[in-house]
């Protein structure tokens, strides 16, 4: 069955530390892939997208993600986390299917 | 471009009442989507429109739910005879698909429904 999995429900990192949020997908072919961020009580904001081409994509707010076909993954990274990055992060695929989300807490 | 707007932001209702939510998409976008999101979960697709045509409905959309987009602009989502299980955030998104199926959705802030 087609699915999107975010294995980590909750991650805590210290401010200034690096971050990696995992996303795995199960599809027949390579889908278009997205990462969204949601602050409490708010809608979703697009961070970045992968359609084709370069497997390392840059997004807003200093985020990047790497598409790895061999691992069916599209992990989100940031080299240095800021307190304002605390939010819920969702991976999604083109047919409007979202992962369950990873909640990021940032320690001072 | 004022973004996707949803009204109201919060709705509290009693079980059995009907509620209606409104979504105004980004003006040039021809697709409009509705999602439901419960606590700790990702958005779940409910339905979408291409212009005024409702092209797909999830089986999550029971017969108590109905959505319209009469003129291909704003949309309404109505829930009849609300149940406590309908309590959730209802998100609207819009998009203007590019060639090759590339489609980026832009989300509104959502309507939070609480059914007492």
Strand and helix map with partners:
The complex is a heterodimer of chains A (108) and B (116).
Chain A lengths: L2 E3 L4 E5 L4 E3 L2 E3 L6 E6 L5 E7 L5 E3 L5 E5 L4 E6 L8 E7 L3 E2 L3 E6 L1
Parallel strand pairs in A: 2-12
Antiparallel strand pairs in A: 1-4, 3-9, 5-6, 5-10, 7-8, 8-9, 10-11, 10-12
Chain B lengths: L4 E3 L2 E4 L5 E6 L6 E7 L6 E7 L2 E5 L7 E4 L6 E5 L8 E8 L10 E2 L3 E5 L1
Parallel strand pairs in B: 2-11
Antiparallel strand pairs in B: 1-3, 3-8, 4-5, 4-9, 5-6, 7-8, 9-10, 9-11
What form of chain B results from the Cα inertia axes? globular
Q: Could you give the order of the helices and strands of chain A? A: EEEEEEEEEEEE
Residue share in β-strands of chain B: over 45%
Biggest interface, CB < 8 A = A-B, 21 and 25 residues
**Total beta strands of chain B:** 11
Q: What is the C-alpha radius of gyration of chain B, as a whole number of Å?
A: 14 Å
Number of helices of chain B: 0
How would you sum up this structure in a few lines?
Chain A has 108 residues and is mostly beta strands. Helix content of chain A is 0%, strand content 52%. Chain B is mostly beta strands and 116 residues long.
Descriptors:
heterodimer, A: 108 residues, mainly beta, six-stranded mixed β-sheet, four-stranded antiparallel β-sheet, B: 116 residues, seven-stranded mixed β-sheet, 48% strand
């Amino acid at each position: 069955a087609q699915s999107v999995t975010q294995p980590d429900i909750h991650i805590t990192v210290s401010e200034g530390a690096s971050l990696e949020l995992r996303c795995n997908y199960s599809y027949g072919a390579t889908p278009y892939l997205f990462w969204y961020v949601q602050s409490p009580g708010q809608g979703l904001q697009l961070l970045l997208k992968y359609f084709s081409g370069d497997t390392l994509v840059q997004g807003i707010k200093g985020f990047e993600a790497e598409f790895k076909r061999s691992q069916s993954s599209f992990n989100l990274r940031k080299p240095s986390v800021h307190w304002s990055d605390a939010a819920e992060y969702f991976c999604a695929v083109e047919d409007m299917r979202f992962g369950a989300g990873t909640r990021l807490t940032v320690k001072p | 471009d004022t973004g996707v707007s949803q009204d109201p932001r919060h709705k509290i209702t009693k079980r059995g009442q009907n509620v209606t939510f409104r979504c105004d998409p980004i003006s040039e976008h021809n697709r409009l989507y509705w999602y439901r999101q419960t606590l700790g979960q990702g958005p779940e697709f409910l339905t979408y429109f291409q212009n005024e045509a409702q092209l797909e409905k999830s089986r999550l959309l029971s017969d108590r739910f109905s959505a319209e987009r009469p003129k291909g602009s704003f949309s309404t989502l109505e829930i009849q005879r609300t149940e406590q299980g309908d309590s959730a955030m209802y998100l609207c998104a819009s998009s203007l698909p590019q060639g090759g199926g590339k489609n980026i959705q832009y989300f509104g802030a959502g309507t939070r429904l609480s059914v007492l």
